[in-house]
Write a structure and sequence with these properties.
This is DUF1343 domain-containing protein. Helix content is 31%, strand content 12%. By secondary structure, it is an alpha/beta fold. Helix 5 (149-162) crosses helix 6 (207-216).
Length: 409
Amino acid sequence: MMRLILMLFIAIFATSNIECYAQSASSNQGASNNPGIITGADQTEKYLPLLKGKRIGVVANQSSIIGKKSIVDSLVNLGIKIVKVFGPEHGFRGNASNGAVVSNEIDAKTGIPIISLYGKNQKPSKEQLADIDLMVFDIQDVGCRYYTNINTLEYVMEACAENNKELLILDRPNPNGYVVDGPVMTDDKFKSAIGIHYTPMTHGMTIGEFAQYLNGEGYLKEQCKINIIKVANYDHDMPYVLPINPSPNLNTQQAVMLFPSLCMFEGTAINEGRGTFMPFTILGAPALKGKYAFSYKPVSIPGMSEKPNHKDSVCYGLDLRSYEINKLRKSRQINLSWLIELYNAYPDKAHFFTPGRANQDISAFDLRIGTDQLRKQIIAGVSEADIRKSWEPGLQNFKNIRMKYLLYP
């Protein structure tokens, strides 16, 4: 009985912390949503006539909303015939942990079959598309190569092209749309489940723009027929506070904005807050004890991180929950200084970067970054200025390519 009471107390305390933290992070973000921004999904008058009388497939998760309600629930209530829902990483309702295999199921609320695109197959099969007249894609992205929604987008576009299905994309703002930064992946050997595109780490495009990029740059054997409902009254520099968490470990606006900089630490000895209710806002490791006063203990959290780095061990490092996000906005850059700082502070540098592919000189860090150059530069003590200088040719080339596919200023 006492154990049950204690568990309930912990749950209430954690929920309270999350709510307070979310309010603090939203305030720290520096600006609230522009009330004039209208997502593609919210402009129902533009696409409902395209759906009526057709058998519809929807690629969606918990971020796919009309107003405050699930797009699937809303469309069903509007009389649209949805025959299948396709769910990306974390599942349709967004309750699966990062990297967890998601199985097919029947949605308990609507009775609609849910096909996982993060389980046995990553793209819809011919059989799964056979009874679909039109596919709809509506998922909130955060603008990073290693955020797997753009992988799902490519696989869905490929399947639609192969099976002569049109794809309707309901576009959403990119909360990190102001930044195009990081090394560009240029070699196939660095392709993995967390990166399959020749872009910088942050590409600065919306899902609709990225779909045009995939079509135009030859990622598909044949182009996919797409129709994009654009975001109204939006440009890439506009701050945008997400109305709902895009994934379990991006549970605050602060985490969303820090994600491009802190996700680099996956593939290192540093825990990036997984295993806490503050993911992607804190950094630490047990080996940094005595070098940093801030500490926390990652634990297993079902639905978020079951096996976080340094599980059940006290980590010491940086608390970035109050970091002023406008500093990143003004610089238009990923923060590289935290990576350099923690590498220099780490006592066992030979084990700072974790191994990746067996029998290859490619670390798990390299797969996330898309190149082994940054790891080698960090180890060699190359300055941040010189590291950034080495990125410039690839970045400038990508920016020139990107311009062709932008839908917004």
